[in-house]
Amino acid sequence: MTGVAPFTCAMPLRWSDQDLNAHVNNAKVITLFEEARIQASSQWFRGIPERPRLVRSLSVDYVHPLHYGEETTARVWISRIGTTSFSVHHELHQKGRACVTGRSVMVCVDPEVGRPEPLSPDLRAALEAALIPEDTAERAGQL
């Protein structure tokens, strides 16, 4: 395992996040992932000029239901760094276990032409500081 720890934050749930099955709706989980990713990004990328980053793909595994009223914690880290993109791993925890896990592939885009652009050296350095490679996380039982 690397010396890097995932970004962790409380993720408050709202009454309206529930569905008829009395657990957090699957679409709301995507919003919770986004909120956690934005909080992590604001810490990781502090001082780096903003450039457009778009979600290219998103995968989600619903392992256990999330319930309103239970303390919910988000854990987020960088799991892969490419040339124009990077992967963000997300987990939502309740009662000490990962209930939902997912991965977003983010692409940096040149706003002038709307096409992918290489990661800047500053952004790459920030990503590397938050990197927990997928194979390392799997061996440590984080996935």
Structure description:
There is one protein chain. The protein has 143 residues and is of the alpha+beta class. It has one domain (7-139): Hotdog Thioesterase (Thiol Ester Dehydrase, Chain A), CATH 3.10.129.10. The protein has three helices and six strands, in the order E-H-E-E-E-E-E-H-H. Strands 1, 2, 3, 4, 5 and 6 form a six-stranded antiparallel beta sheet that branches. It is globular. The mean pLDDT is 91.
pLDDT under 50 segments (min length 5)? none
Q: How is the CATH topology named? A: Thiol Ester Dehydrase, Chain A
Rg calculated over all Cα atoms: 16 Å
From the helix content, strand content and strand pairing, which structural class follows? alpha+beta
CATH superfamily: Hotdog Thioesterase
How many separate structural domains? 1
Short description:
By secondary structure, this protein is an alpha+beta fold. Helix content is 24%, strand content 34%.
Outline the fold blueprint:
Layout: E1 7-10, H1 26-44, E2 53-62, E3 73-81, E4 85-94, E5 97-110, E6 115-116, H2 121-129, H3 134-139
Antiparallel strand pairs: 1-3, 2-5, 3-4, 4-5, 5-6
